[in-house]
Amino acid sequence: MKNNKLKRNQNTLSLSPDMKIADVIRLWPQTLNTFIRMGFTPLKNPLLRKTVAGLVTIEKAAFTRNIDLNILMLNLQNSITNPTERNEGFIDPDKLRYDENTIPDLNGEINLVGLIPCPISNIVTEMFDAFIQKNYSSKKTRLAWWIAAEGGGTVDIKNFIVSIAKSGQYDSFPDYFMAVGTELFLHDDYCRKMYHEDVFIDGNSTSYKRPEFEKLEDPNKKLNLQFLVYFTFYCTPETMDGLPLPATWFDLTNPEYKGKIVLPSLNLPVVPDFLAALYYHLGDSLFVQFCRNVSFALHPSQSSSRKVKKNSPSIFITPIHFSKIIKSKGHVHIIPEDGPVAVPAYYVKTSSKPKAHSIENFLTSKELMEVYYKNGSFIPNRKDILIEYPLDNIITRPWTSLFDIIPDNLLEQLLQNFKLGESL
After folding, report:
1. What is the crossing angle of helices 407-416 and 271-282, to 10°?
2. Which helix (DSSP H) or strand (DSSP E) does residue 232 occupy?
3. pLDDT for 287-345, tens place per residue?
4. Residue 37: what are its φ and ψ, rounded to 5°?
């Protein structure tokens, strides 16, 4: 039976990322031109509109074409709201600039910008604010900072960083910048040129760091490892149709699991590094089979609350900080025998101002890192914090893949495994 929500009047139906492209075009024909202008030129073919477009959601299509989902949704919504205004309000991704009205005043003597995981964004922001009040409010040194949660603040901060990296005005780059994954630091669209031109400098002491995480440390000492995001999976036994619960990542390549695996939302900033790590772990042919087994992508908070239905996906891959929600829903949480996939979080520094040293100490402090672990299950790079999860048996993206192979090309290869319709 077709989705009941698509039977409603189009005036009351809301556009959402999980809608199939064919349904969007059927309900709002004017969106076809918007899709094409955004780079989905294959949709000019009527046959593809009737076939592949009926299988692929807006979210997955945006990921496949490496297009910002937020911009695509804004342009589609604009064409729906103003069907006769073909050019008014269209946002060209190639000309996108950050909105200066959303950018705090970063003209301090010391500046810090950071993206932090959503589950701990509020408490970390409060802690950082308290730290500033205690250490800088009564001093002449002015510290300007901008910390945002991944998701809502990602687009603005990404575009802010891009505007500096592309302009070559490196003096405008913050003294400290932190984010999860390697994309913002090493992708050609972001800060790779700055990395190679030695804009980033060596960070804090290594005396407190975990020796088990050495393979995740930057051999050039420009990216400073702060913590890890672990990926595991959980299963819904009621929908496994008698299949055994998978115990390893290799098990997920078994064709018997086709259509039963759900990935995290493809727009999460940690996903590219997760896919790259899994690619190197499984090898090319098995990784392709894994991709073919994947049914669709959901934000972990959505996947953990799905109602159990017959023929529903059964295996959900998520960051480990959702395990508490998962367990409360009665699902089986599995830490793979071959180890969790670990995505690193780094910070970089561009200056060695003595007055900023206390900030770096705070970013790596036991006090802050314990909050990351206790409140978010993020694995701190501090050997003095006890961890219940594996430390030496982890799957990571090799550093050699970042320097011997152009990261952009590798990710493009991975994206090809999720091309329209292939994994559905």
Report:
1. 80
2. strand 224-235
3. 888 988 887 665 555 454 444 455 567 898 988 877 665 655 568 889 999 999 999 99
4. -65, -25
